[in-house]
Amino acid sequence: MPREKILYDPKGDSGLAKRVLVSDRPDGFKPASGKIGQQVLTLLSSGPKYPAEMARSLGAHHQTIYYHIARLEAAGLIARVRSEQIRGGEAKLYALASDGYAVEFPVKGEPLPTLRSSGRSRALGRFFSEFFDNGEFDGWVVVGSPLQHGAAGTQARDGHYAVQLGFALGQFVNLPEKFPVKLDTDLRAEKLLTSNLVVVGGPRNNTVAEELNPHLPFKFSQGGFWGAIVDDEGNSHASELDCLVEKIQNPWDRSKTCVVIAGLTGAGTKAAIIGVCNHADALFAKYGSGRFAALLRGVDKDGDGKVDSAEVVRRL
Fold first, then answer.
1. Please, which residues have CB within 8 angstroms of residue 279's CB and are 6 or more apart in sequence?
2. Cβ(220)–Cβ(228) below 8 Å
3. Are β-strands 17-23 and 100-103 bridged in parallel, bridged antiparallel, or unpaired?
4. Helices assigned H by DSSP within the chain
5. Could you say which of 69, 82, 89, 91 is the most buried, measured as most Cβ atoms within 10 Å of its Cβ?
6. What is the CATH number of domain 122-315?
7. What is the Cα–Cα distance from 288 to 308, expressed in whole angstroms?
8. Minimal CA–CA distance to 209: which of 133, 149, 274?
9. Assigned architecture for domain 3-103
10. What is the CA radius of gyration of the chain?
């Protein structure tokens, strides 16, 4: 089977790299050599798609598309990201397995500088793709103000957890020229709600999270001062380490995206951040595009009294 390697253009000035499937023989890439195979790969380069979408776009019979998809998947060039039941049948969503493919000859090669992105999570990059624009961060990370604010006059103490998120997202973008973090109070005052937003902290501490709450698939319950998370089946989750990671369209501008990473408590928010940054491959393994909702619970694996991991309880 082909192996994935990093393809880096030393003459480029963007600092971007691509993950490419590499083999020492061209035989494994035969499914990509035909006209339909190439067209399928070109379509998927713009994002995940269903076979029916590809058939319509290419004006081809569904069985023809299914045949080429099966060959491309068997060759490891494309991958199934999720399946759904639609009108009594199973619809499968496919995406590129890598950014390209190449045949590698047995030459020695040449030394290159260490790439900062060589160990990054592909799943994490896909989940936050709307926030990356040609190597620049497009949006704001929103944390609660440490001053008394909101109807309850609370003081947020979980904003520092966004540092871990900054390290994770920094693998995909250049160092921003403008400071990308805003307090919830400043974001509103500066009329920036119609932006791509990553909201850290729940409605106890973050007024932007409070306003987004009615739009979330999994919601914080207002009873008991936001004392529980209610899932899509109406079940309440009230552990202090319960938390959620959700992605929706921005209700103030539908062309933008909001990601909420928050817990019932500060420890819960820390657990959500750990889930996103440290366990992205597992958390977003089946994510293709669009809305996402996951309920997580923080775990203290080493028994030192502090949350250090997160497990998925329920996911849409």
1. 309, 310
2. yes
3. parallel
4. 35-44, 51-58, 62-74, 122-127, 162-169, 184-189, 207-212, 223-226, 266-278, 280-283
5. 69
6. 3.30.379.10
7. 27
8. 149
9. Orthogonal Bundle (1.10)
10. 22
Residue 181, CA atoms < 13 Å, CB-side half-sphere = 14
CA-CA distances (angstroms) from residue 311 to 8, 243, 272, 280? 35, 10, 9, 11
Instruction: Say what angle helices 35-44 and 62-74 make with each other, to 10 degrees.
Output: 80
What are the residue boundaries of the structural domains of the chain, listed by start?
3-103, 122-315
Given a cut of 70, whether residue 22 has pLDDT beyond it is yes
Residue 209 and residue 200: Cα distance in Å, rounded? 8
User: Residue 9: which pLDDT band, with cuts at 50, 70 and 90?
Assistant: confident
Longest dimension (CA), the chain: 66
Amino acid at 10: P
Instruction: Give the closest residue to 137 by CA, choosing from 184, 180, 171.
Output: 180
Strands of the chain (E only): list them: 3-8, 17-23, 78-86, 89-96, 100-103, 132-133, 136-137, 140-143, 181-183, 197-200, 219-221, 228-230, 236-237, 242-250, 253-263, 292-299, 309-315
Q: Which amino acid makes up residue 305?
A: G
Tokens of 116: 């900062």
Phi, psi of 275 (to 5 degrees): -60, -45
User: Is residue 54 within 8 Å of residue 43, measured between CB atoms?
Assistant: yes
pTM for the whole structure: 0.69
pLDDT tens digits for 279-308?
Answer: 999 999 889 889 999 999 999 999 999 999
Q: Which tens digits make up the pLDDT trace of 148-173?
A: 998 888 999 999 999 999 999 998 88
The pLDDT assigned to 112 comes to 55
